Structures
1.
Amino acid sequence: KQEVTQIPAALSVPEGENLVLNCSFTDSAIYNLQWFRQDPGKGLTSLLLIQSSQREQTSGRLNASLDKSSGRSTLYIAASQPGDSATYLCAVPPNSFGNEKLTFGTGTRLTIIP
Amino acid sequence: DAGVIQSPRHEVTEMGQEVTLRCKPISGHNSLFWYRQTMMRGLELLIYFNNNVPIDDSGMPEDRFSAKMPNASFSTLKIQPSEPRDSAVYFCASSTTSSQQFFGPGTRLTVL
């Protein structure tokens, strides 16, 4: 059974700093990996989807990397801003195209200090 | 596109009552997902549909829960009878096959 872990559970950094969020998964046979953010009382917003054949994916100040062999992904946020404060979750489906049952990590609650 | 639409946004009901949550996926998406989020258990997939057909309902907790997707633009999640432990935020999401999932704003359910 796939298990997804995100450490730390909470992180506070001063505005302007670069930071890295971590995601680990136990079964490396994944099809892709997705990063989401969730604001308090809101739904999830998809940030990046990185395919198993890719090593990284970029969107603006966000960069996600994937190392399947070690079962790890990182989300790098450059020049952090207070608006980046949210809970960040990673999620993986099983390794079969069309099977979309995502397993989510428990999330990292990020606070950017102005 | 307006994104995934869910209704109601908030629902407060008494134990034993029937609850129906509604979802309209993004037009053109062929997969639809129902999730439940609680502090204790995090985010759990209850059921998902592909082309209106239920594919995996192994996350549905009990027979009290049922979901339908009568057409490509509408789905319901029903709880009958509801219990206090069903209190949670229920999310609907949609996607094209194996692509990014887009979530609705959720329905916050409180069962007294």
2.
Amino acid sequence: QVTLRESGPALVKPTQTLTLTCTFSGFSLSTSGMCVSWIRQPPGKALEWLARIDWDDDKYYSTSLKTRLTISKDTSKNQVVLTMTNMDPVDTATYYCARIGLDCGGYFDLWGRGTLVTVSS
Amino acid sequence: QSALTQPRSVSGSPGQSVTISCTGTSSDVGGYNYVSWYQQHPGKAPKLMIYDVSKRPSGVPDRFSGSKSGNTASLTISGLQAEDEADYYCCSYAGSYTLDVVFGGGTKLTVL
């Protein structure tokens, strides 16, 4: 059974750096064709793709946020970590990690439950 | 403002069919066969319903179908059921080198 679970702080202050961890099971990011993404959703608003990391350590970022994002993986721990710098109240959102479909296709086939991050002083 | 345009809301009675549109450009929806659709119930994570324009993951009822014409993709739900009431989001690749992904603004489906 494939599961993903996000973890991280529920509250961060403006200008701080956010670090989120996605811990997954049921697949390995060392397997060819496996990829994981981060996606966020502000309260009451639409989904927004943030970043992706592939089994071969290729990384891709949202063009609009790439200067603030870093994605990495720890294959031995089955974890993907996302850092976002210079947090602002507009970054308040539920942050999801999701596995990308077969051979890193153009879809997200399994999602974590998400973790709500509030940015406030 | 979301990159893909969806109607804010649609509605239908049980047993009826509804179609949700998703309009993009030749740089996203029109340029790739990588359109996917997600269902999201309140307080829950999104669930994949359609991928690669018209493919259904195992476990998704065949009442859900997808299609694309030009820069517009569509999700059709036939035989509406109460549990179909949810928000629906379309999604597409938007760059072959950057692998940017764009979502629609979401459509609230109400089953009357």
